[in-house]
Amino acid sequence: TQSTRPQRILDAVQKNATRGDPRSVVKAIDHFCRNKEWAMNVGDEKGCILDSVVSEVNPATVLELGTYCGYSTVRIASLLPPHAKLITLEFNPDFAAIARQVIAWAGLEDKVQLVEGASGDWIPKMKEQFGVKTFDLVFLDHWKNSYLPDTKLMEECSLLRKGSVLLADNVICPGAPDYLEFVRSSPRYKSQYFKSHLEYTKVEDGLEKSVFLG
Ligand SMILES: O=C(NC/C=C/[C@H]1O[C@@H](n2cnc(C(F)(F)F)c2)[C@H](O)[C@@H]1O)c1cc([N+](=O)[O-])cc(O)c1O
Ligand SMILES: [Mg+2]
After folding, report:
1. pLDDT confidence of residue 2
2. Which ligand is nearest to the CA of 40?
3. Which of the following is catalytic: 170, 205, 208, 209?
4. Which of 39, 57, 66, 122 has the most crowded Cβ, counting Cβ within 10 A?
5. What is the tens place of the pLDDT at every residue in 160-206?
6. Active-site residue, 170 included
7. Do the interacting molecules here have an ipTM over 0.90?
């Protein structure tokens, strides 16, 4: 039977990475996507920017929108302090099944809660279901036209507090123009663009870091 790209990414991890070693999992996926098959992971160049923002924020609670194969989930979770929690939302059950195995291979199951479903359903339930008060950091890397509505929904559900950091992938390529316009023009956000390149290519892309001002 024909395998899927996420399945081939998991195979590359299980063949080339060391169990319990998150950095080797990240390295194995980057090597596969640079040399065998491109895939929409945040990648190593933007991943370093992601790492620096995570380290700076040192979050106790993180929400990731868009798990895919778990590449950025592993990057983020490997940098969290001992009792910190990362909730990652994934809509596609096949991607979720692969991501669970990638996260397990990295030995990060205890830090990560992978939730399957739609953001519109789950964001309003975060407090009651997971005992989350607010998120210190949100990484947006799901459908680009969902970035803005989901940000507004997180505000409405009081999931953001003064100082919460939103970090959005792909604000140039494929682009999230309505989101970018919103966070850059709203008086309730302080936004900053980190110029980089689309994963594994020379095409321009970047991350937008936006601090919620309350
Ligand atoms: O389309 C891109 N990403 C879309 C990513 C989408 C991923 O987010 C999940 N999701 C959907 N809703 C939720 C939630 F959370 F709401 F439940 C989670 C989808 O099932 C998918 O796994 C993309 C495309 C390119 N590219 O170069 O084309 C490069 C990139 O870095 C990209 O991220
Ligand atoms: Mg992306």
Report:
1. 76
2. 1
3. 170
4. 66
5. 999 999 999 999 999 999 999 999 999 999 999 999 999 999 999 99
6. yes
7. yes
174 CA to centre of ligand 1 in angstroms: 10
| Structure confidence at residue 133 (pLDDT) | 96
From 90, 199, 205, 208, active-site residue = 199
> What is the reported pTM?
0.98
Q: What is the DSSP letter of 86?
A: E
Q: How far is CA 66 from CA 44, 69, 82, 83, 88, in A?
A: 17, 9, 23, 22, 7
Amino acid at 112: V
**DSSP notation for 151-165:** HHHHHHTT---TT-E
Structure confidence at residue 1 (pLDDT): 67
Q: Find the residues whose C-beta lies inside 6 A of ligand 1.
A: 40, 65-66, 68, 89-92, 95, 118-119, 141-143, 146, 169-170, 173-174, 198-199
Instruction: Specify the length of the chain in residues.
Output: 214
Sites in the chain below the pLDDT cut of 70: 1
b/e per residue, 125-161, with b = 16+ CB within 10 A? ebeeeeebebbbbbbbbbebebbbebbebbeeeebbe
